[in-house]
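Readers outside the structure-tokenisation community will struggle with the description of the input data as it stands. For illustration, here is how one protein appears when written out as sequence plus structure tokens:
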Amino acid sequence: MLINRKFSFFVIIFVNIFLQFENILAKIHHQKQPNILIVLADDLGWGDVSFHGSKQIPTPNIDLLASSGVMLNNYYITPLCSPSRSALLTGLNPIRTGMQVGVIAASQPYGLPLNHTTMGEHFQRLGYQTHLIGKWHQGFFRSEYLPTRRGFQSYFGYLTGHSDYFNRKSGDFFHGYDLFEMDTVANLSKYQGQYATDMYTDRVIRIINEQNKPESKPWLIYMAEQSVHAAERGDEIQPPPRYENGFKYIKKNDRRRRFAGMVAALDDSIGRIFKALNDTNQLSNTIIVFSTDNGGAIGSITGNEHIDNSQGSNWPLKGGKYTLWEGGVRGTAFIWSRLLPQQRQQSYNQLMHITDILPTLYSASGGNIEDLGDIDGMDQWNQLMNPNDSDDQNDNYKIRNHLLLNIDRSNHFFAVRYRNYKLKNGTQLVGHFDNWYEAPGQQTESPPDGIEYNLTTTFKILKELNLTTKPITYQVDCRKEQNPFIECKTKTNEFCLYDIDQDPCELKNLAKKRTDIVDKIYKNIFKYYDKQYVKPVNKPCDYRADPSLHGGFWKPWLD
């Protein structure tokens, strides 16, 4: 009996020592793993940020982080938000998840299929705390589709595709309130009158502060910004009160002036979050990825054409949101991290896709990308860390030499990139938004004192860190002299071929001249993707979703 007690005593001591050792190892492991912040702006256009050369709307915080980080200049997204979000979360092209056609309307009973593992689930496996703030738009008709059931341990945001910035109303055929906290409807009175962009930024900062403890696990925060998507019909452009009467130098178009206030609120959000990371001493071990979900919702200079009645710009790129022209799919993006070598160039010109974000960050966090399964995304972390580790410094296709922009069989259009070439066929909205749309005053109106970078907290922080505070501009040169206009019709039976490296504004259709390239891309690249096409999971609207049947709120209605 005495022997058994002694044995039990030593077993208990051994187990306690083992558990303490395991905890120490876990803490060491967590300290090595970087924190991850993904900021996904909504409908931010190529021409809506000043680091792309348009000085009409200043974006000093975004500019400074892009300039002191790595600009992703050859980076692609999808033309719409639901497909892009599914691609970000799964690393899969939407044609493989059934998310390739349109967006999820609030009353449509479908979402990202449950058999696909999300980024949140993958990072939880690595020991991360995972948080989602802002826009979900991946389905909510049943509770198992909510973010808290898809890999995110906390959620605060809205489930539909757009919302009023002040009162949280949202709708399609029906209208109701949309604000969720975890997996239940939020207390609206608690957030009454708060501007959405500021409200979600406050929540991100709160999480950053709460996670700043020695025993805390590494965190992944996916902040799906509401800005700068249009709000509800009739009041689409909603700047915060502090910018309602701002930007008075923008005189040609009042809608563009007020839209500038929405962009400024987004820029403020980035600056505040960056400051919170610095204040909590977490900047040295955090990777920030900034991206837009699709091209800007353009408003033409004539005022006759608008997407979502917004006033964004992709100038000088062609087209906008909904389209497979560069203005719809070439994304405004950068990566900022002190983990990246400081001597590297600010421009990253490797061909990159939104599906690459998951494997790139997973690799940076010490994960084995084979654990992600058969995804389309490619790991670009090693190339980001070793930009000069190559015999050919001008090869922008070392990691990937092709990518899919979309295939939509129901509407008979597609587009793919193969190295410098882009092959396109058809368009989603025939005859609409297939042009170049300069925003009113975009090239003539600018702040009278210029962009005052040195007045931002971001500037001061970068200066203290001995990082560059010199803003760098990456501006697209259309090379109109070398690219005489050769139109490409948007008919479903006509190919458009462009050399994007030489003709980024898609002026010169090479399809008839380079039939050899068309044939090669169509038979090899397009067919490769087309074989992977699954049936879209879209469903028609369901009257049972009507918020008036559910206390006035959008919520899962088929539980």
Summary: Confidence is low (pLDDT under 50) at residues 21-30. DSSP finds twelve helices and 18 strands in the chain. The first strand starts at residue 35 and ends at 41.
